[in-house]
Amino acid sequence: xxxxxxxxxxxxxxxxxxxxxxxxxxxxxxxxxxxxxxxxxxxxxxxxxxxxxxxxxxxxxxxxxxxxxxxxxxxxxxxxxxxxxxxxxxxxxxxxxxxxxxxxxxxxxxxxxxxxxxxxxxxxxxxxxxxxxxxxxxxxxxxxxxxxxxxxxxxxxxxxxxxxxxxxxxxxxxxxxxxxxxxxxxxxxxxxxxxxxxxxxxxxxxxxxxxxxxxxxxxxxxxxxxxxxxxxxxxxxxxxxxxxxxxxxxxxxxxxxxxxxxxxxxxxxxxxxxxxxxxxxxxxxxxxxxxxxxxxxxxxxxxxxxxxxxxxxxxxxxxxxxxxxxxxxxxxxxxxxxxxxxxxxxxxxxxxxxxxxxxxxxxxxxxxxxxxxxxxxxxxxxxxxxxxxxxxxxxxxxxxxxxxxxxxxxxxxxxxxxxxxxxxxxxxxxxxxxxxxxxxxxxxxxxxxxxxxxxxxxxxxxxxxxxxxxxxxxxxxxxxxxxxxxxxxxxxxxxxxxxxxxxxxxxxxxxxxxxxxxxxxxxxxxx
Length: 527
Hints:
Blueprint: H1 2-53, H2 59-84, H3 86-105, H4 110-138, H5 141-144, H6 148-172, H7 177-180, H8 182-196, H9 210-229, H10 239-259, H11 275-304, H12 318-338, H13 343-359, H14 368-385, H15 388-395, H16 402-439, H17 444-448, H18 455-459, H19 463-496, H20 520-524
Helix pairs in contact: 1-4, 1-6, 1-8, 2-3, 2-4, 2-9, 2-16, 3-4, 3-8, 4-16, 6-12, 9-10, 9-16, 11-15, 11-16, 11-19, 12-14, 13-14, 13-19, 15-16, 16-19
Organism: Streptomyces dengpaensis
Protein name: MFS transporter
Region (Disordered): 505-527
């Protein structure tokens, strides 16, 4: 009789669930938007911030501190959610992010801003992981594909509107509102999650692996610093870079060793026994490598070579982002309807490879229409991959490991973006310098002294220097995207070995250890 009652309660809840899930997802998308929009808004405001606070020599640390804190804290947030409940961990990360945003807006010098950005980054590390893990909890893998388009849409909105919103806020309200704007959005997300999301409580019997977390944070921080400083602040072969590489390798080797001994490892190595999970981590790394490199170099190419306006830099990426959004929605619906997904990693990796190769063919004569078509091919490839990688990774682990699986996949994508920006950037800069020295001779110093070589700045240069710089940028872009195409080959090889494991039709029930109240009736109260 009790079972029948629970079944009726469950059935009744299923009728209500779509509306409840939509409300929860709306708040999760706001949190995701906060995490993705922040750096793009702040990046637009940086010249104004430096003008008021000074400290130009520490400018890069405003971004680096945020990135370091985000990457280092990501795995820890995932483990906290697994141990003590995802709702509490997610709401805590929102609060920390909002505190960091408020303090950053009140910063009086560059040192304070860097420190407060680190606090903001600690919270941001839990936002993306929390969104992915909560979706993994609430939506069965078979149905999860439907919501891919929403996440891809949030990403597209952030990349397109970020620079525009940042410029508008800075011009009309002042740079401090670039941080304050997070507060009302964050409060809405916080209240919605608190009021609508009701997950079964966990006992929190486990402990945090502090030594493992420390070793992982140290290793990640060293890697991020190597990719950030290498070739810019320090030469790649300098003693400082070699020291950081040594520290990073030692810390990560120590971390892997300790995870085999720890009673409650922060990243359980057994999740990598799943072939699909390991392959999705590799593909996620490649996506980060390619995507953030493209976001960096495509606007630069279109502004410097094709004469586009820097003000609308986000709109320059519309062909790529629009294709990514459309294909992601189609991939989600097909996956939900058929339960099959291997075709998408294969097709996505192939399209990504082709798109990067086509972008590498751009030169000073390439039209905007042609470059837009090339970007659309790349965007279609990433649309096949962006959310499918997370879906397959989550489908490859047990429910108790959903948090660490989500955080580990997110971490690999973050590390990929760091490596992509660093390596593609180093190659780009090297090629630009070589071509400028070859074509412009002494006039190459003119371009080096220009603070921002956008269309307006280029128009003021001597014709020889302007043509030389445009040719140098197209050559550097060619080399950077050719490197990206080479790396994308790894993604295609990995996709070939993906095993099509059937997607689970319903969420797994938490074990007795995870949740003392995980009866069918309690699960009916989940949303």
